[in-house]
Amino acid sequence: MHRLRTNDGKLPTEGVHHITLVGADRQTSIDFWEGLLGMPFVFEQPNLDNPGESHLYFDPGDGRLITIFTNEDRAADSTRTSTEVGAVHHLAFTVSQSVFDQVEARLDARQMGHSGRKDRGFMESIYFEDPLGLTIELTYYRFTVPEGRRIADVMIAAHRIRVAEGAYNIQQSHIARAIEQLTATRDSLSKRPA
């Protein structure tokens, strides 16, 4: 295994470009990603590295892409996808709180098993499996990111507050104080010049 030395330099990323999954047949992918999750099916071409597969592209709503390699000779197998070291544990997608409040009922209507609502302190989540056994999480943050900041800014500040308190996990109070710290840096005419 190659380990980078600290002086090897970093390769700074600018966001997730796309995530590609190995799927079964084409229609299983369309039915799940567009039919259940509402991600428009936006593009298809052959898998340029394997002409026996098709490469389907779906828009998860943020301008990025979820892509699926499909093959009509592969049948859907709902056996739990491996969670061994190096495997993907789950994929999480953001939904609005309004949509989140409908998720359980809509999964129940489709007779799809799910975890029910999970309180994560700073967000709520529901987990269920895709037709190939991959765990999917639908979630929403319980806070609005201050203008000019990123989710990561709020999470870093909340983490530091949590650690200073010795709390087990981030709670709403940590998020509120983090947002207060981040917004305190905004300029105001009532502040005295330095």
From TrEMBL:
Residue spans crossing the bilayer: none
Pfam families: Glyoxalase (PF00903)
Lineage: superkingdom: Bacteria
Domain VOC, residue spans: 15-141
Protein name per UniProt: Catechol 2,3-dioxygenase
The species this protein was found in: Roseibaca calidilacus
